[in-house]
Design a protein that fits this description.
The chain has 166 residues and is α/β, with parallel strands linked by helices. Helices cover 49% and strands 16% of the residues. It has one domain: Nucleotidyltransferase, domain 5 (2-Layer Sandwich). A hairpin with an 8-residue loop joins strand 2 and strand 3.
Amino acid sequence: MILALDPSLSCIGWAVMPLDAGRVIEYGTYKPKGDAMDRKLIDAYRWLCWLFDDSYHNKGEAFTTFAFEVPVVYRNPATTIKLAQLVGVLRVAAFEWVEQTVEINPGGRLAAFGLPVNLKRAVAKERVIAHVNTRYGLELKPKEHDVADAIAVGFAATIKLARELW
């Protein structure tokens, strides 16, 4: 099982998929609570530990893979540093639960669907939603771009893992 995340301090998109990414089992968003950065990081850590422990691990469907989008500097280096801190905290939370982690850069998420990696942000969000909806038979709305990005991260992770096997 893959747990794929689109990490953000305002809204974390997440998706659960089998390793072949043939379907999406479950998806959603989580908004880290707290006003201060340290509170958001602690809350995100606790949420992810809960997701690993209670939601799937106890059902005998343990996650083997944790895939996430890595932060890159686009507009604001300070925001990138904060996102890197969040990703670090999420990696620590996943450490005891999964066999492998897969890092996907934003361009990799687009390339997995055959999209150009240099699309403007709004266009990229729109196209990823359309591709996710078509591929998985979903009806995600534009405001659900965090979920679509998480699903795209999971899909890209399966492609990356398959290439590493060859």
